[in-house]
Amino acid sequence: MPALDILATDPASQARAGILNTAHGTVRTPAFVPLATKGVVKALEPRDVVELGYDMVLGNTFHLFLDPGHERVRHFGGLHKFMRWDGPIITDSGGFQVFSMGHGTVADEIKGRASQGSDRAGAILSIDESGVRFRSYIDGSEKFLAPETSMEIQAALGSDLALVFDECTPFHVTRDYTARSTERTHRWLARCLDWHAENGPQDQLVYGIVQGGVYEDLRRESTEAVATSAVDGVAIGGSLGETKAQMHEVSAWSTDTLDRVAPGKPRHLLGIGEIDDLIRGVEIGIDHFDCAMPTRIARHGMALVPDPEKRWRFDLTNARWKDADEPIMEDCPCPCCSAGFSRGYLRYLLKAKELTGMRLVTLHNLAFVQRLMTDLREAILAGTLPQTAAALRSGAAPGLSRTVA
Amino acid sequence: MPALDILATDPASQARAGILNTAHGTVRTPAFVPLATKGVVKALEPRDVVELGYDMVLGNTFHLFLDPGHERVRHFGGLHKFMRWDGPIITDSGGFQVFSMGHGTVADEIKGRASQGSDRAGAILSIDESGVRFRSYIDGSEKFLAPETSMEIQAALGSDLALVFDECTPFHVTRDYTARSTERTHRWLARCLDWHAENGPQDQLVYGIVQGGVYEDLRRESTEAVATSAVDGVAIGGSLGETKAQMHEVSAWSTDTLDRVAPGKPRHLLGIGEIDDLIRGVEIGIDHFDCAMPTRIARHGMALVPDPEKRWRFDLTNARWKDADEPIMEDCPCPCCSAGFSRGYLRYLLKAKELTGMRLVTLHNLAFVQRLMTDLREAILAGTLPQTAAALRSGAAPGLSRTVA
Q1: In A177-198, which positions are buried (b, 16+ CB within 10 angstroms) versus exposed (e)?
Q2: Element (H, E) at B288
Q3: Is the model's pTM score more than 0.80?
Q4: Which domains does chain B have, with CATH numbers?
Q5: When you count CB atoms within 10 A of the terminal residue's CB, does the N or C end of chain A come out lower?
Q6: At B172, is the pLDDT very low, low, confident or very high (cuts 50, 70, 90)?
Q7: How far is the alpha carbon of B224 from chain A, nearest alpha carbon, in Å?
């Protein structure tokens, strides 16, 4: 059975809608995958995530390796049983996180922002061909991550979809460094696949990770090398450039190559999930996305709304909402807005650091993104993606405006 | 219509089961009332509180006065609309909180523990017959609370059941101080009732507060003075002694007096809610209780279990639970245990400061207390309270053992 059943494609773009088949059930694609980095979608229970309509969550190898440790998770019967999530789970490989200790934050680096130094107590001790030695940010102990150890951890976690261990190439490096780093990522891919073929769970899908920085030839070569290996799917990682336009272009080099060399393999875009990026990502043929954005900004009081001029968000903690009676979004069916919580009340809760405030905005934001993805998927199936994408881009409320399509 | 319809009494004790009638619906008594001190039951949504089976919550005049301010709550249509709770709400008067700034923590004082100094930035500026002048712990501004202002704030909040403003007499004071303080509380009661008769919402019930320290004659006099005034119900407040035995005895002086002078008026026991205190409180004829215990200890990782030897609780953050597969409580129907979350996972979440961990233990603890209260109420109605109380005291799991009755 192929990992991905493609049910429909959009004639005007590279978009596809399908079903991803995993050991713990199916995922309707294109899909957004909420983060359960540390084995929990922050502020929510699994039943909330199910009720929001999500099929899959993403756990993180690096964080779960350090705490509570993969052996402990194995003792509990794997990550599904540990966190009580019965559906599909992706695990990120830990490459991004471990290299972020060496480059300030990789998030800054790969998005081309100036490095602000590490925000972690941990630190890289050495990087070489064998792997990465570093200090745990939890207890300062020395740890080692390598292709084989990452796969071993992901086997213990028992995720449905494992990502190979890559060297996450930063932005502010030379073309030569990028080329050599990408080659190492390819050698590490082979080691990951070897380890998995020998020892990995047979029903665990493995995705390779494309690197290559912002260089078209390197990106296309990397995509082809990864896609034509024994991987079940392809994840696009690393630095995608300084601007959204560049990020969309760099990502499209990969999906364009994939359309040619491995059209049936599923594609994941790593760490990207702003509203306009999701719309564009679907158009260039991405099948699933993960991003901290909807949940992280919620805890800081930022709520998603259909307002393209303001990056689809506004700050609930602003004093202007003190007396605001209206919900985050009129007619929104999410658990927060439909219960009638006002912006004024949410502002009050957030300023008072009440957990319920963070939870309510998290529910709203994830509901918003899920409705967006559902709109895009249904439009692909109905053959009306261009109209739906245009409407969403111009500020149509997702999930409220399907008659637009 | 009387505030309380008594449906059954226990022949072997002073216990009664009934229905409290309020402007926003009925409360099945005896009842535990979860705290929504700042207009939110911490970590929960109103729908959670409904699903747990609670009829009423308690908001706090002092905290809501300082933030977001009663005028702002009034702007939103009152506390029910502000916090999206459609059921009955009690508001505490603020007396306890404002006096706690002057006596270290009143919680320490009234329970006879040594004062540890104030844990608030706020401070009392003056106390006299007119009221209390103090500094806000929110912004340092000068504020004034008095009988009339407390009732005015509670009118703006629109609670179903207002408590009069009292001087909360601390423990470490002389009998003479206690007597004079109690007399002031009675004069303030009259002022509260006058203000409410003139200006208060007609459908808002008003409860007086009994003081009198640990002196039987003062307690009985205070109870009679409060109960024979125009109040709809009676709350027992202030210092109840150093030990549980003393607390039960002091409370019983009041309910014994009430049985004689005002048997039909509902009784609230302020700030008391440990498991054995709830059982004993029901037996001496208390109709409803509030206490921070179940929700506060949950956020610190303490879970309620049927273990009388250990105050019905254990510390989930203890290292011994690292690998523990079992739920907080076997066969517990609460949203946490029934979903299969293990002690090991909960420990991990709590140690990692994950909001979901605090939420799950809050759900468990409040479910535990609600089942306890339901068991006690059903036993009174069935005429089997002695057996049920004995079983619960000896460690029967509430809600799982109703066949005991």
Answers
A1: ebbebbbbbbebbebbbebbee
A2: strand B288-290
A3: yes
A4: 4-291 (3.20.20.105), 301-404 (no CATH)
A5: N
A6: confident
A7: 40
